[in-house]
Amino acid sequence: MQPAYIDTYYSRTAATSEHYPQARGRIEADVCIVGGGLAGLTAALKLTRSGRKVVLLEAQRVAWGASGRNGGFVSAGYATGLAAIERRTGPDQARELFRLSMEGVEIVRNNIQELGIEDAQPEPGIAKALRYDSRGALQAASERQQREFGLQIRYLPRDEVRALFVSPKYHEAVLDEGAFHFHPLNYGRALAREASRLGASIHEHSPVMAAELDGVRKIVRTKEAEVVAEHVVFATGGYTGGVLPALKRAFLPIATYVLLTEQAPELVQSAIRTQAAILDDRRAGDYYRLVDGGNRILWGGRITTRTTDPRDIAALLRREMVTTYPQLTSLKVEIAWSGLMSYARHLMPQIGQWKPGVWYCTAFGGHGMNTTAIGGTVIAEGIAGENDRYRLFAPFDLAWNGGIFGRTAVQLTYWSYQAADAAREFRSR
Ligand SMILES: Cc1cc2nc3c(=O)[nH]c(=O)nc-3n(C[C@H](O)[C@H](O)[C@H](O)COP(=O)(O)OP(=O)(O)OC[C@H]3O[C@@H](n4cnc5c(N)ncnc54)[C@H](O)[C@@H]3O)c2cc1C
To answer: pLDDT tens-digit profile of 371-391?
Structure first.
């Protein structure tokens, strides 16, 4: 069953709305990509640029999934921290993976510049803010990241953070000046436009229903078409179905929500006085930023294993916003929506070759803007035989998601995190 979602949402904010034809008949290709989110689109563009004949099949519309609905925060790192990665890979490979995550940020930045994607509206700066006093730990951690990876991170003491984010909640923050935020749907559509211009065949409303993956030439079937290709890439994110059962068993769909307020420049700027975006450091905390030239707030938050939408997404998020910024009590919400992320149990992306010619590129969690760029890139490099950097992700395999027990564990963990965050915030008052 298709998860429920609000469909009158993000697409209203898009600059353009090209349509791509449904796939029909027999189509021959070098590579068939299943899923038109940023992972699939990045791979499609790179493979097309390297001369491969690419067919991309998207069940709905280009960037219809998480890639078009997300908060637009682009920063280095993964959904899990360096220490957890190190425990599985050792320090050297963990550092290499982190540097790859930085490369992901640059891939997105370069695409925006080189393709002149003005409606991606990139704005520099993402601040990570704490609701408690870390007693030097935040500053020390940011200095380490600066030293080890050259990230441009600036520590913001309490006075400075409260001057930019006018909330009594925040105690300190770090501002990553090399990170940025942008309009992800406009970016995704621009990648599709460029891939199509260079010769990729992009098809919307073409859900893949079955695949024969054993032969040298694989066959991928939609209702109206049969694509025959040497390579198949599954990039179906949190909307992954049962076409490749190993993939379905290996991820948990996790929902998160976003709202967009009405236009009220004076009111929103009474709360947020910077173009930098803010990430509330509570585990699964809020993420928000000014959009539309500082006229509105885009506010995201909450995570849940419930994949059908509650009726009151806007009210749920609005409560968080007003608790943080009481001066926004009269600010109205214009639209709200949900999206599904794909999480593996190890919280790292799942990137690799399942069997010869069958690739997977998924599970980017809540950190997909830089990591889909990496995933699409290293898979394309692997298919083109340029290198095997995709093997860096081998320690993070298609482990079983734990089924219903996995879901319950995630929800319980989230609630216990919320409780721990609330206690820590309370102690810092
Ligand atoms: C509300 C929200 C806020 C977020 N905020 C941020 C953020 O600020 N920064 C950040 O880094 N990350 C963020 N994320 C995470 C990020 O958006 C995702 O990790 C990333 O977009 C995943 O991209 P993807 O290409 O793997 O999947 P998706 O973008 O979900 O694309 C998968 C596509 O596959 C298609 N598909 C599925 N099955 C089939 C099939 N059988 N046949 C054909 N097509 C199929 C779907 O229709 C979908 O379009 C957020 C996510 C959400 C939901």
So the answer is: 999 999 999 999 999 999 999
